[in-house]
Amino acid sequence: MREIGVGLLGLGVVGSEVAHVLLHRATRLSEQVGAAVTLRRALVRDVSKERSHPLPPEMLTTNPDDVLAADDIDIVVELLGGEQPALDLIRRAVSNGKHVVTANKEIIAKAGYRLLSLAAQHGVDLRYEASVGSGIPIISPLQQDLAANEISAIRAIVNGTTNYILSKMAHEGLDYATALRQAQDLGYAEPDPTNDTEGIDAAYKLAILASLAFHTPVRPSAIYRQGISALNPKDFTYANELGYAVKLLAIAKRQGEALEARVHPALTPLDSQLANVDGVYNAVQIEGDLVGTLVFFGRGAGGQPTSSTVVADVLTIARNIANGGLIRPRIELNRRIPVMPMLDVETSYYFRLAVADQPGVLAQISRVLGEHRISISTVIQKELDPAAQTAIIVIMTHPASERSVQAAVTEFTHLPLVQEVSALIRVER
Ligand code: NAP
Ligand code: HSE
């Protein structure tokens, strides 16, 4: 039986699980492939570190060339994370004629097209199923099973850490800081949670999904991004009263000759599938002209689910090698669809204002909204402080442009009776 060698770059949360699966399911996996798929060695920073699934010491190395330049390795699996040195190591692996599997969304979002072109030049495959949605197969369905469709929209929850935090805020009334601490204690959120909480991770994933779905390069820097750290538990309560959940959504939509691409907290109807995705789970909703609406749902983080998609990529490549051919998804970024400036995007909005509880205040607010052609759909008023005669006004609008809404917010801040624009959250129906 032919042997296909696998080398790992990284043996952390994901790498350890991948190594465990490759070693402990070797016989079954090899039967599926028709060739022996053999883990050879793994690059780490510290060979003496304790690991959840220890490998024999002779399989560990701190020298990248023991993986990248080894004759007995055909497939290199990059699971270091971050941009560097991972990007250079992938380039070197490809240039040495190795096939590559990676779970690294930052690298695929920023440099995927160039890496795929380099892989094509060298006649090798580069696969990245685990880079979005962890254990959820979504890259391959977009490249293959949905290929006949014109995709019109993607709405997704692609960050498990923030979805866990938002679920805690919604269901237990926790404030953001407390929910974040819990996520950190459970190991979901990093000590520096910025990448997750500010929507950076979700924007990388949206860039990958949108590029594939719309066949156009979508740079992460072109995606409008707002994180979850300013959300207040009050808004979860009011949103719920109005029939909505609050979720960090990654949205890409075709709008004529342009594309909307944005990551931000959004009110989403309680009876929608996305509103009911809780904890570290992820979901990706796709609208295609032939298939209609599809939802891919599953565990969006963690070593085991991620090992499922990483090993699946390894097996696809191994099957191709065993069959003596290379079936590589074509890179079809042959359209040039610009991302719309956020100010041109139209959506409905949720406002929460702290106002003086006096006659005429609602009239002033609706005058400002009317002047900016923003139509109100619902208004509720809550008493804030009876002694100080202040109230909270929550307003839901019909679709309006971001430009008009921002102009109205600026005007509100100049109204003497409006003390504060406390929240402004977009609505995605
Ligand atoms: P991790 O636990 O931090 O593991 C990183 C591994 O890389 C460690 O084994 C570390 O070695 C090694 N490493 C880092 N820098 C190195 C360097 N300069 N030289 C040699 N070795 C180095 O990361 P992870 O959570 O497994 O994530 C790996 C990748 O999977 C990332 O791209 C991540 O975004 C992606 N991903 C993760 C998840 C998840 O739930 N964790 C889900 C989906 C995708 P030591 O062990 O010796 O320190
Ligand atoms: N930090 C990511 C998340 C891990 O919370 O979703 C999976 O990519």
Small-molecule components bound: NADP nicotinamide-adenine-dinucleotide phosphate, L-homoserine
Spatial separation of the terminal alpha carbons = 54 Å
Helix content: 25-40%
Number of strands: 17
CATH class call of the largest domain = Alpha Beta
Gross geometry: elongated
Biggest sheet layout: 11 strands, mixed
CATH topology annotation of the largest domain: Dihydrodipicolinate Reductase, domain 2
Can you count the helices?
A: 14
Helix-and-strand structural type: alpha/beta
Tell me the name of the CATH homologous superfamily of the largest domain: Dihydrodipicolinate Reductase, domain 2
The radius of gyration computed from the alpha-carbon positions, rounded to a whole number of angstroms, is 24 Å
Provide structural commentary.
By secondary structure, this protein is α/β, with parallel strands linked by helices. It is built from 14 helices and 17 strands. The strands form two sheets. Strands 7, 8, 9, 10, 11, 12, 13, 14, 15, 16 and 17 form an eleven-stranded mixed beta sheet that branches. A six-stranded parallel beta sheet has the order 3-2-1-4-5-6, with helices on both faces. The longest helix has 20 residues, at 303-322. The mean pLDDT is 96. Residues 134, 159-161, 196, 201, 300-301 line the site of L-homoserine (HSE).
